[in-house]
From TrEMBL:
CDD domains: PgpA. It comes from the Bacteria. This is Phosphatidylglycerophosphatase A. It holds the Pfam family PgpA. Residues 18-161 form the YutG/PgpA domain. One of its GO terms (biological process) is lipid metabolic process. PANTHER family: PHOSPHATIDYLGLYCEROPHOSPHATASE A. It comes from Terriglobus albidus. Keywords: Membrane, Transmembrane, Transmembrane helix. The chain crosses the membrane at residues 57-80, 100-123, 144-166. InterPro entries: PgpA (IPR026037), PgpA-like_sf (IPR036681), YutG/PgpA (IPR007686). One of its GO terms (molecular function) is phosphatidylglycerophosphatase activity.
Length: 169
């Protein structure tokens, strides 16, 4: 199924829904932040409604990150091709995947998920090595890989900060 618009006659519907992470990537300014916030909201709602233990929540979070990556790579590739941009700002499924990596060891309490959100956005924006270099991988792989690495940096920092800042982490 494709969506037809006057500016782009062919859009693959599933890829645009996934790539823009349900349209959050179309919001301005800062579509990446909207994608990250939506990922946190989905994570928090799942934690609340499913009433999971911390290990169960960590496993669910890992599954979300893996699914977003596996589906996100082809979606990001297709949206990039159809939009004519190497790394279109509207593609934010990569932010969702990276954000879920950053949340791997978080508890569903606001201090944890806000810290994970801030750390992920910081590393996603600053792009320390090798985050920036991973952008050079081809198509959807490069679009996704840099945010996954930013998520890895964020989760490492989160664990270190949480260990010292939050009693009974």
């Amino acid at each position: 199924m494709t969506i037809s618009t006057p500016t782009n006659p062919r859009k693959t519907a599933w890829a645009w829904v996934v790539g823009t992470f349900f349209g959050s990537g179309l919001l301005k300014p800062g579509p990446g932040t909207y994608g990250s916030v939506l990922a946190v909201l989905i994570w928090r709602l799942l934690a609340f409604f499913l009433d999971l233990t911390r290990p169960q929540l960590a496993l669910l979070t890992l599954v979300l990150a893996i699914l977003a990556t596996v589906i996100g790579i082809p979606a990001a590739t297709r949206v990039a091709r159809e939009s004519g941009s190497k790394d279109p700002q509207m593609v934010v499924i990569d932010e969702a995947a990276g954000q879920w990596v950053a949340l791997l060891f978080a508890a569903p309490i606001w201090k944890h998920y806000v810290l994970a959100l801030v750390l992920f956005r910081l590393f996603d924006i600053l792009k320390p090595p090798p985050v920036r270099q991973l952008e050079h991988l081809p198509e959807g792989t490069g679009i996704m890989a840099d945010d996954l690495m930013a998520g890895v940096y964020a989760v490492i920092c989160f664990v270190l900060i949480a260990h010292f800042a939050f009693p009974n982490f």
